[in-house]
Each structure stands twice: as C-alpha cells, then as structure tokens.
Amino acid sequence: MVDVCLILEGTYPYVVGGVSKWTHALIKNLSHLKFSIVHLYEERKETMKYPIPENVESIIEIDVKNGLGFKFDFRDVLYLIPRAKVYHCLSTGFAGVLGLQIKSALKRPLIVTEHGIYWKELEFGVYEVECGFKIFKSEKEKMNICIARREFLRIFKEIALKCYLKADLVTTVCKYNLEQQLSLIPAQMVEDVKHKFKVIENFIEPGFFNPGGRSTNDEKVVTFIGRVVPIKDVKTFIKAMPLISRRFPNVKFLIVGDLTQDSSYSSECIELADSLGVSDKVKFIGEARALDYLKSTDILVLPSVSEAQPFVILEAIASGIPVVATSVGGIPEILNERGIECGLLFEAGNHGKLAEHVIKLLIDENLWKKFSENAIKKAQKFTLENFIKSYSKIYSEFIKS
C-alpha cells in the first residue's frame, strides 16, 4: 500500500503545464512518501514529459471515453486502482467522480485540489478546461454544441458540489478560487463545511530568483509563455502586435510553448500573425524552459480566458519582469494585491488594451523599474519550502488518522 494516490486528468506526466509542474514538485520533494498515479485520459499520449521520481510505485492509465460519450461511472475499474492511505484528486470533473467512488468503496480519506475551477471554466465558454480535456471539441460533431455545453456544465457542477461536500479536505491555489468554490455550496451549508477549505499558494522554484534587468538596447522583447491552446487566447496577443510595432518598430515578440497540444489552433495563430503582417516580428519557439527565455524578456504577456495562479507569472515576478495579463482568476491577487502593483490588467479578449499597457511600460522606464522592484519583493512569499511543508503536514495528519 502506498501513502498517496494522485488522480489526474490529461496532465502529468504527459503534458507540460502548471498542474504537471505542481505535481512533479510535490512528489519529488516528498521523497519520504510513496506515491501512485492514476492518469485519466481522452487521447492517449505515448511520450512522458517528466522523469518519474523513484518514489512513484505505479502509474495506472484509464480511458474516460465510453462508446460515443464520456463515462461518469468508474466502479467497473476500481479493481485497477492502487491501494493507498490517502487519495488526492487534482481536479473535480472525471477525477472527482473517480475520487468519490474510491472514497465510497474503500473508506479512505479524499483530498481534492483545484487549480482551474472546472465548472467555472465551462461557464466562461471555453472548449478546453485547464486540466487538458477538450470536452466540446470531442463532441462537437455528435450533438448540438449548446445542448452539450449546458448538459456538461450541469453535470460538472453537480460533481464539483459533491466533491466539496464529501471530500475530507479541499485545497486551491488562490482566494478567487476559494470564493468560487464556496459560491457553489447552498448558503445554509457553507458554515458547516468551510473549515475544510484551504488556500495553499503555488511556489517559485529557486532558480527563477535571478532578475536580469531591463534590456539596454533598442530591441525590446515581449513574451508569452504557455501552452498554445484556446484557453490561453494567444490570438489576442497576436492581434495586439501590429499596434505595439507601430509605436516600437524594433520590438520582438516571442511565443514560447507547446505547439502540438492543439496543432490546429497553433496553425491558426501562425496564419493570423502572417495575415496581420507581423510574422517577421514574432517567433514561435515551441516547448522550452521558461527560465531560458525570461532572462531576455522585458515584459511578460498572459492573455488567458481563465487562470488560477499561473506559475509563469510567479516566475516572471521572481525575475523582476513586469506583467501584462487578463484580470481573471487569481491574477489580480498577484499583480495588484494591497495596491502594490507589479503589472497591468486588461479584460480578456481586449487586444487594444493589451497593446496600450505594453506600450505604456515600454515608454515609461520609471514605471517599469517600480513594477520590477515590487515584483521581486512580492515573489519572496511564494516559496517551495512553504508549499512542501503545507502538504507534508496534510498528508501526515491523514495517514496517521
């Protein structure tokens, strides 16, 4: 029997991203514990993106497709699930369904951690939730998309509510998420359950605390780092590029991130850059280490439709890089908490405001320097040590019980 069984959807160890980074750091830094991983997938991926730590005893893969649709009953595969002292779901959704069925059958403690809020992302109208599933794209040709969206949203809200009420502990990464979780619970029940909800913020790995300073030459670098998928809304960044380039002809744009996860969307982004006449100013780097490109970046842009507490913003502020990002999820908590600014916010989809903010930071060196100094100070609280201590204590308490 292992200590902890992690249940994930479409992420670790096959996809690079925030949830996978979080999971890898958790396992690697809790080397005294034994882990198993249950990986739920829609489309099987052959190549692992992360080396598996020695304290992982097994990885079990389960297909969530059942005939023409998705399956919401995993009782027929419970015999495959590794026996563990604690089960820990890294989302609600399919992972939540499986976690609840394991808790019912095996009577073991269940922890649920949400990065992106599954049902909230569906409410926003995205086709892909942060955990990696492209729910509506998969079903688009089989049923009316509006009916599918309403039905999936209803189902996933019901699943989330059951997870919130029945899990022994619910954690998330920012205050915004906590508010959303509690908002789904009937008002008369909130007082009885809110004690088991906890915010444990994300972390910055030590290597990122290495500010590089503002570029001294005329060629400024504005960078997006993340998966090139619709939920990140890379197209809004590309639409802002001509506006920025008119004011700063020497500006260079970088798009750093996996181009293969949604190859059709990546192709659309490349075509958009060409149609807007900026293909000579933007480089699509593909999958790469964020640290390698933050060193040469003047401004980080994150135009996502939905986020929780993005690692890339934390890594940027640790590097002293001002950020221009959407005012979604927990991003305002990082960039503008208590009036200490280290970036500028814009409404999702507003490429004009994105461009305006980037131009403002490129023009005003004093503002850039102020944001950079604030960013470095703010980054000090997001330590890997605090993150590991929090989960080490949680696991220890549940294992003992």
From TrEMBL:
Record GO terms (molecular function): glycosyltransferase activity
Record Pfam families: DUF3492, Glycos_transf_1
Keywords: Transferase
Cited InterPro entries: DUF3492, Glyco_trans_1, PelF-like
Superkingdom, natural source: Bacteria
Keyword Phosphoprotein: no
Occurrences of domain DUF3492 (ranges): 3-64, 81-182
Domain (Glycosyl transferase family): residue spans on this chain: 216-377
SUPFAM superfamilies referenced in this protein's UniProt entry, alphabetically: UDP-Glycosyltransferase/glycogen phosphorylase
Transmembrane among keywords: no
Protein name: Glycosyltransferase involved in cell wall bisynthesis
